[in-house]
Structures are given as C-alpha cells and as structure tokens.
C-alpha cells in the first residue's frame, strides 16, 4: 500500500500535465491495491454517471487483432470497457466520467489510451444489460514510456467571451476561465482534433460546445474537455449553461 500512497502525491492538476496516450505496455500485472482503488472509483462513477464501466484484467485478446496492430498497440491486457444505456448524452458522460478514471490511473503510476476503433470485442469478458452498448475502450497498464505531447491549439482558438462592458478595451474574462481552457487544451481528443470550444457568457456562466468532425467522437471529446475545464477553473467558480 505504501507504493500507492507515494504515487497519490501526484495531484489531478499534475496528472493532467503529465498524462499522454500510451499504446505499448510492459508485461506487468496491476497490483491488488491498485485494482481495488480503481474498482472503488468505478463503482462511484457508475452511480454518478449512470454508466456500467467495467475493468477487465489480464485479457490480451481484445488488443491482438488487425486493428490493434494497425493502431500500434502492444501488450495491452488490462482495459476499461465503457458501457452505458443508449441515450443522447451517453458519449459525453462516457468522456466526462472516463477521464476521471484516466487521471486517477495516472496518479497511481499507470498509463492509458482512449480507444475508439482499434480493439476487438471478446465475448464473455464484459456484460451488457438491456438497452446498453459499448461506446469505447480505454487501454490501461504500465507503459513502456510515458508517451509524448502533441501540438495543441491556443486559448484564443477555442474560447471567446460575449460579456460586454462600457470600455471595450478591458478584458472581462476572469483568470479562472483561462485556466479552465488551458486545462481543457491538455485533454486527449480523437487524433488530437480538439473540436471543442468554451464561451464565457456571463458572470460565473460557461457554455461548452462541440465542433464538427468527419471522424466523429466529438461528443466523447467534449465530455473529456469539460472535466479538464472544471479541474482547471474550479467547479466552485462557475456553472455550465
């Protein structure tokens, strides 16, 4: 348990900065203590997010197919299956609550990768209740590397303010809003497309929007980015509209 305590010294803010997608993993099983922490958080997030997230351990077949090889995945034997009942907002909830697991994993010394297509559904490894579907997987384990960062957009490219003042030369955007956007820009998105935006529309009010992409996944990406924004901005400073 001492190892987990040491790893937990990393804060969520630090995890946001440190975390990068990792596709190649060591052949090293997760410890019992780490698994317990993850399962406890999954139970909480499933209740809060109305989801059915499942942790699959020591199962390599899901990432041994042609798509996984094309995606350059190697030695993936642990993963989250992101499941929920079909609904218009399911993808966004999967992103929002799934990213909480991703960042928790980072604080525990693990690495992760959101996976939209490069996996195979292995019968018997997961449970789907009536009306549920699999949205995506998240690969999990001890990475061969810590991954690398990618070029990101600027704060100005993904945010704006519609608050008007008498003196238009004055900046009406609060510092917490910018910090939120900066954290959102570090959020993982499909092929790093960053098709989201944030708008400061009034005192303590923020509007988050997804953009259009032929690739898709923008609703999941928006959920991930919204959680990052909340961490950076501080949930107590604003409300979503």
Give the tags.
241 residues; NADH Oxidase; alpha/beta; 4-stranded antiparallel β-sheet; 2 domains
Strand order of the largest sheet: 1-2-4-3
What does the main sheet amount to?
Answer: 4 strands, antiparallel
- For the record, what CATH class of the largest domain applies? Alpha Beta
The sequence of SSEs as H and E is: HHHEHEHEEEHEEHE
Query: What do we call the CATH homologous superfamily of the largest domain?
Result: NADH Oxidase
Report the principal-axis shape: globular
Fold-level CATH name of the largest domain: NADH Oxidase
Strand content: 15-25%
Summarize the structure.
It contains seven helices and eight strands.
Write up this protein.
The protein is α/β, with parallel strands linked by helices and about 240 residues long. The protein folds into 2 domains: about 1-140, NADH Oxidase (3-Layer(aba) Sandwich), CATH 3.40.109; about 160-240, NADH Oxidase, CATH 3.40.109.30. Helix content is about 35%, strand content about 20%. It contains 7 helices and 8 strands. α5 crosses α7 (about 220-235) and α6 packs across α7. The longest helix is centred in the first third of the chain and has 18 residues, at about 30-50. It is globular and about 55 Å long. The model has no long low-confidence stretch (mean pLDDT about 95).
């Amino acid at each position: 348990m001492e190892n987990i305590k040491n790893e937990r010294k990393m804060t969520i803010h630090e995890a946001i900065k440190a975390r990068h997608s990792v596709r190649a993993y060591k052949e090293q099983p997760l410890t019992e203590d780490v698994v317990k922490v993850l399962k406890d958080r999954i139970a909480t997030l499933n209740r809060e997010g109305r989801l059915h997230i499942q942790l699959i351990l020591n199962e390599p077949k899901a990432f041994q197919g042609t798509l996984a090889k094309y995606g350059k995945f190697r030695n993936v034997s642990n993963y989250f299956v992101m499941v929920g009942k079909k609904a218009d907002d399911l993808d966004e909830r999967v992103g929002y609550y799934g990213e909480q697991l991703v960042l928790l994993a980072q604080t525990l010394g693990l690495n992760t990768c959101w996976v939209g297509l490069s996996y195979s559904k292995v019968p018997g490894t997961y449970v789907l209740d009536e009306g549920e579907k699999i949205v995506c997987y998240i690969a999990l384990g001890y990475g061969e590397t810590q991954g690398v960062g990618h070029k990101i957009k600027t704060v100005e490219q993904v945010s704006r303010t519609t608050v008007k003042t008498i003196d238009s030369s004055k900046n009406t955007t609060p510092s917490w809003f910018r910090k939120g956007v900066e954290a959102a820009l570090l959020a993982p998105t499909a092929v790093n497309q960053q098709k989201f935006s944030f708008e400061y529309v009034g005192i303590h009010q923020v509007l988050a929007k997804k953009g259009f992409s032929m690739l898709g996944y923008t609703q999941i990406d928006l959920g991930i980015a919204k959680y990052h924004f909340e961490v950076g901005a501080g949930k107590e400073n604003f409300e979503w509209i």
